Amino acid sequence: MKSVQVFVIVAENRSFRKAAEILNRSQSAVSTQVKILEERVGVPLLHRTTRQVELTAEGEQLLVHAQRAMAALDFGLHQIADSAEIKTGRVSIGCVPSIAATILPTILAGYRAKRPGIKLELHELDAGQLLKAIRQGIVHFGIGPELESFSDCEFEPITSEPIYALLPKSHWLAGRVSIKLEELIDLPLIIASSSASLRNALDALVSARGLQIVDSMEVNQVYTMLALSEVGLGVAIVPGTMVPKLSKVFQALPIIEPEFRRTICQIKLKGNALSPAAQELINSIAKALRNEMGIG
Length: 296
Known about the structure:
By secondary structure, the chain is α/β, with parallel strands linked by helices.
């Protein structure tokens, strides 16, 4: 690469002397670099005379390609520098719905205003889909619950999120400040489908206590869950991040004995380094989540 750069400067100036001045090197050192390149390609690249330097046909051909390559390299270096300074680039994030619909919009709006040169992509996915997107490189990182049996992914805890029993304010239990798990499972429940990570966590908690859910409706969408609960068809089980936006209509009771919580993590493939832009966004999300949970 060094000899190619020297050749380009000599060829563009048609002079070893001028090239030596530009490079701040001796003419003999410049001439040596050109000879090294000629030996490598196996043909003369320059006609050397006492008056001037002229390019051979092969030299003319190499100069065109070398100039293009050096321009592309220079452009690439500028792009990398801009990325390091978070001026340009792309960040693709995957996020579970409960966070994507509550905390994330304000963060993304603020980030876009601060970093207009960064293209943001959001993929709202359940926990299983999120991990698949991370593995396939569709998203650079994810925000979601900690899961076991995914050894190729790195889960860095951000915060611990309480899980609530959500019921309309007209419900006969609305005056309570908490509800025991044993009491909860005797009520009609509105719960997520079996593919959801929160449902799996609920089933594991209930099973560990030797209990069983006997009356429930299973849904895929959070808004379906809320609509059913609002008309009194059951108590919805929801993550803590959703509670502030629902407080006007619903009463949220923390689930106790045992306390029901889940760990929210930033997730990426093991060994993958994030860009400065992605890392800055993760830091903003983590800070907002910790503030929401009262541990900022």
